[in-house]
Amino acid sequence: MRIHNVPTPRDMTELMAQAYALEREAVERYGELADVLATHNNQEVAALFRRLASQEALHAAEILRTMGWTRAPEPPGLPGAPSAPAYDETHYLMHPWHALRLALDAEQRAHDFFAELVQRCEGDDMRRAAERLQADEREHIVLLQDWLKRVPEPPAGWDDDPDPPRYPH
């Protein structure tokens, strides 16, 4: 079953370009979320998103280094990164627990994406590369699961705000 509407990479360059694009979009999304939460004076979660963005940036840099690229080629038909958290899943009063859940969900989607590519890639080298990318995402999942065990789940009513922001219509 095909769960992602992305063309199967034809070669290692396309595969790694897809992986690089996913990492870069995650960097941008985490950075944007950090900025929004900082604007709402939620510095703790903003710092957590910045840390996640830094980790994703390291992964992107590693792909560039491994491939010997100074700039990655454009991947064919990549409609949004499965490893980037969705904007509509955030809340300006969210706690670190929520940020970790968002990141965990995003890493699971990235893992599933690469699992699908493992099945679709032709050639042992590409399949092994997709398996390594999938394994990297699995490591991220385990790390986030361990981190979540140490962070308390917020109490009921965490999103109550007697003076919520007002947005112009």
From TrEMBL:
Coiled coil start-end: none
TM annotation in the entry: none
Q: Which residues form the Rubrerythrin diiron-binding domain?
A: 14-144
Query: InterPro entries, from UniProt?
Result: Ferritin-like (IPR012347), Ferritin-like_SF (IPR009078), Rr_diiron-bd_dom (IPR003251)
Q: Name one GO molecular function term.
A: metal ion binding
This one is known as: Ferritin family protein
Source organism per UniProt: Ramlibacter monticola
